[in-house]
């Protein structure tokens, strides 16, 4: 096949493509390298020796920010967002195959959420939870629960407003992936299962789920990685405890040592590991299915 | 009629869609309604006091009737629109070229998938890190300046490479070309290859095929990509903040600053205006595409 003559324009476009990939990855690779800067080194080249001293400094904490705690918070939130994104998108995806009243409306709302400027979503959710705070405080005062009123802080938090903000960003991707899957899905397999007396649940578990498995894993990967890096929608809606990317954004203006690169390398590594696990699982599932045929 | 049977089985559709729908009712629709409502509430310090006033909107457009000396709001919108337009143009050309290369020049589907994934992996990593990774390249003592000085092209470091409008646009292109690339690639992969052969047989040059067959048939992808890129840049405050050294204004940044000072009614009014502008752009883009269909 490669012997065939390349079409006109192949090589110029191949060069553009190569430069684009370099443009995509080059900068990130430089901060990987610079994160191993020697103790005397700075934010730019040249490298003054090689060391892991900036990782140690990162581990000890950057200024007042507890990196470890933020990392654990973001990981936990990421997994919750991942699980909910998979479950809710899968369930909604199945619903859209049937006759669903308001299907169009739900679809347009989902797409609107995807392209809505994030600052508007974030402001709205922050506003909403502050109003809920006001309402709850008024209610506690009205029923005379003054003890509870004194200790009441805010309803804004990682797993309330923060989780909601992340879902408005991850769920649209989940639903679009489900659409792509079911557009190409052959219902003959399900029919065969039902004909042979399988219950709807058995049909789903043993026929549908294995067939769409790779895409479900893809949705999970979107859910985790998008949540893990989310800033814009969380910014006004996260409450008192920041996620790791929000801390990182704050640190960009205050930290002037390669520790910030070390932090960048660590967070990127987490994303890359998740992506690698997801893509490998998908590849294995595909191969296994191909082998069965 | 068996396929109907299959699709009817299991729990009812409305029940399956309810959890998904509730998330958007509570975390998307309700907040938007609240923004619209609060934008008419009176401005007050730190507290939300219900009421009805046009004061927030009046203060946003205060002095904007004098076009000779534009008010802050108009200037901010102008600069944000400028960022959108430049980013849109660059990502469109770049995204289209890459998608075209992948869809029509890479022949084996394995290589196609692999190269496509290579382009999308950065999308799943952190935007802020991808922004700060330009610092060692573009900074005062960065690689680019070291190179320019070494080659003797300039006598002193170029200052406008980082924390400037240039670096903001560069970061936008770096981050969001993917939003253009994926939908266009998707559209191109649906194009029937026999159409290209037909064009070729009819004697069309490669350029003619590109312009008269591929571009019109990639219309949907171009439209989706354009909406993505323009809405993201219009509402952005993170990229403009980090890459502009917190010195460049944008509409999103205005809203963010007002929110962090708890000036909710004012921020809400600004959000409503931004939303209106973004909607107008989307409607205009849709028209543009439909218009082409009719021509």
Summary keywords:
heterodimer; A: about 290 residues; MetI-like fold; 11 helices; flat; B: about 300 residues; mainly alpha; about 75% helix
Describe the structure.
The complex is a heterodimer of chains A (293) and B (295). Chain A is mostly helical and 293 residues long. Chain A has helices at residues 10-34, 53-60, 67-97, 103-115, 118-142, 146-151, 158-183, 188-195, 200-228, 244-254, 259-292. In chain A, helix 1 (10-34) packs across helix 11. Chain A is flat. Chain A starts with 9 loop residues before the first helix and ends with a helix. Chain B is an all-alpha fold and 295 residues long. Chain B contains 15 helices and no strands. Chain B has helices at residues 2-8, 13-38, 55-60, 72-105, 109-120, 127-132, 135-138, 143-151, 165-189, 193-201, 206-217, 219-235, 238-243, 251-260, 264-294. Classes of the chains: A mainly alpha (293), B mainly alpha (295). Chains A and B meet through helix 1, helix 3, helix 4, helix 5 and helix 7 of A and helix 1, helix 2, helix 4, helix 5 and helix 6 of B.
What is the gist of this entry?
The complex is a heterodimer of chains A (293) and B (295). Chain A has 293 residues and is mainly alpha-helical.
Order of helices and strands of chain A: HHHHHHHHHHH
Spatial extent as radius of gyration of chain A = 24 Å
Report the top-level CATH class of the domain at 67-254 in chain A: Mainly Alpha
Helix content of chain A: over 70%
Number of strands of chain A: 0
If helices are DSSP runs of H or I spanning 4 or more residues, what is the number of helices of chain B?
15
DSSP, total strands of chain B = 0
CATH superfamily of chain B: MetI-like
Quaternary class = heterodimer
What percent strand of chain B? under 5%
CATH class descriptor name of chain B? Mainly Alpha
């Amino acid at each position: 096949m490669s012997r065939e003559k390349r079409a006109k324009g192949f090589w110029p476009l191949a060069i553009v493509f190569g430069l684009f990939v370099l443009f995509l990855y080059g900068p990130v690779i430089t901060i990987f390298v610079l994160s191993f800067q020697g103790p005397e080194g700075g934010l730019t080249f040249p490298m003054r020796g090689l060391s892991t001293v900036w990782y140690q400094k990162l581990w000890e904490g950057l200024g007042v920010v507890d990196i470890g705690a933020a990392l654990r918070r973001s990981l936990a939130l990421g997994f919750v967002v991942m699980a909910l994104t998979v479950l809710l998108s899968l369930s909604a995806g199945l619903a859209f195959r049937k006759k669903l009243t308001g299907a169009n409306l739900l679809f347009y709302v989902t797409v609107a959420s995807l392209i809505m400027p994030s600052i508007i979503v974030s402001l709205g959710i922050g506003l909403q939870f502050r109003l809920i705070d006001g309402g709850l405080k008024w209610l506690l005062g009205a029923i005379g629960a003054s003890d509870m009123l004194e200790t009441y802080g805010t309803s804004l938090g990682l797993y309330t407003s923060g989780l909601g903000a992340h879902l408005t960003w991850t769920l649209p991707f989940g639903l679009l992936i489900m659409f792509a899957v079911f557009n190409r899905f052959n219902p003959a397999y399900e029919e065969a299962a039902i004909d042979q007396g399988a219950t709807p649940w058995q049909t789903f578990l043993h026929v549908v789920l294995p067939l769409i498995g790779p895409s479900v894993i893809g949705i999970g990967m979107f859910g985790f990685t998008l949540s893990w890096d989310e800033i814009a929608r969380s910014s006004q809606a996260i409450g008192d405890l920041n996620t790791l990317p929000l801390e990182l954004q704050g640190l960009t203006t205050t930290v002037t040592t390669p520790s910030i690169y070390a932090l960048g390398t660590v967070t990127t590594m987490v994303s890359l590991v998740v992506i690698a696990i997801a893509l490998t699982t998908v590849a294995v599932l595909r191969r296994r299915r191909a082998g069965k045929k | 009629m068996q396929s109907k049977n299959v699709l009817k089985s299991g729990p009812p559709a409305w029940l399956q869609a309810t959890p998904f729908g509730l998330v958007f009712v509570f975390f998307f629709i309700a907040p938007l309604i609240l923004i619209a409502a609060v934008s008419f509430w009176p401005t007050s310090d730190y507290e939300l006091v219900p009421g009805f006033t046009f004061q927030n909107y009046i203060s946003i457009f205060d002095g904007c009737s004098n076009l000779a000396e534009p008010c802050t709001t108009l200037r901010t919108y102008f600069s944000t629109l400028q960022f959108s337009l430049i980013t849109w143009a660059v990502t469109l050309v770049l995204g289209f070229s890459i998608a075209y290369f992948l869809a029509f020049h890479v022949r084996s589907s394995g290589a196609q998938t692999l190269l496509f994934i290579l382009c999308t992996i950065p999308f799943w990593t952190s935007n802020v890190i991808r922004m700060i990774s330009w610092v060692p390249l573009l900074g005062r003592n960065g690689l680019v300046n070291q190179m320019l000085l070494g080659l003797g092209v300039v006598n002193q470091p170029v200052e406008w490479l980082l924390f400037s409008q240039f670096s903001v646009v560069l970061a936008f292109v770096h981050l969001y070309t993917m939003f253009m690339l994926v939908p266009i690639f998707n559209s191109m992969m649906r194009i029937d290859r026999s159409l290209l052969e037909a064009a070729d047989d009819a004697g069309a040059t490669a350029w003619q095929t590109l312009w008269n067959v591929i571009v019109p048939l990639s219309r949907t992808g171009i439209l989706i990509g354009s909406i993505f890129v323009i809405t993201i840049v219009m509402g952005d405050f993170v990229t403009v903040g980090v890459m502009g050294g917190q010195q460049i204004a944008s509409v999103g940044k205005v809203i963010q600053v007002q929110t962090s000072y708890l000036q909710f009614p004012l921020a809400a009014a600004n959000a409503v205006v931004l939303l209106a502008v973004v909607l107008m752009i989307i409607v205009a883009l849709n028209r543009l595409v439909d218009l082409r269909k009719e021509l």
